[in-house]
Specification:
The termini are far apart. The chain contains no helices and ten strands. It is an all-beta fold. It is elongated and about 70 Å long. It has a domain at 30-135. It has strands at 3-8, 13-19, 30-31, 48-51, 54-62, 69-74, 84-86, 99-107, 119-124, 129-135. Helices cover 0% and strands 37% of the residues. Residues 1-21, 30-137 form the DM13 domain. InterPro entries: DM13_domain, Spindle_Org/Thrombomodulin.
């Protein structure tokens, strides 16, 4: 498709049209590298950045032996203690359990998007140690997240939401 138009057949009028330039690549999920295998049996297949808030981790493995290991994201060239925890695949901020070739889907919390972070890691918060990580490339052409938080105020004074 090179162009798209909204056309009125009766009046033979073009209400609006859109030209699609040559070589246009629409946003799509992007595959990046797999977890580095630094410690505690961490490994995975290449991660997929599904959209601006969703990270898919295929075949994730971790032995679960660290008491304070979490999924961790932040800014900088390498994982560091200035990062922050993100929820696990169930939406909890609990220490990670053992995994064996599990498919995980992680959602970034709040207003955080993939464009706000440079890495995702499994981080031992007790020892400030990176157990395995993936650097997220800049300039990813991914779809926006379709989940938004909308504050709704009731105009009905006696109703509860």
């Amino acid at each position: 498709i090179r162009w798209f138009a909204i056309w009125d057949i009766r009046s033979q009028k073009n209400f609006a049209d859109l030209f699609i330039p040559e070589g246009f690549l629409p946003p799509a999920p992007q595959t990046i590298s797999e977890f580095s295998q630094l410690s505690n049996g961490i490994k995975s297949e290449p991660l997929v950045i599904v959209d601006a808030k969703t990270i898919r981790i295929p075949s994730f493995t971790y032995d679960g032996h660290r008491k304070q290991a979490y999924f961790w994201v932040g800014q900088g060239p390498q994982p560091n203690s200035a990062g922050e925890r993100i929820p696990n695949e169930l939406g909890y901020l609990e220490p990670l359990r053992p995994y064996r070739d599990d498919l995980l889907i992680l959602e970034l919390p709040g207003n955080m998007t993939i464009f706000d972070i440079n890495y995702i890691s499994v981080w031992d918060e007790e020892l400030s140690e990176n157990l395995g990580s993936v650097i997220i490339p800049g300039e990813l052409n991914i779809p926006p997240a379709l989940t938004t938080v909308i504050k709704v105020e009731s105009r009905l004074p006696n109703c509860e939401q």
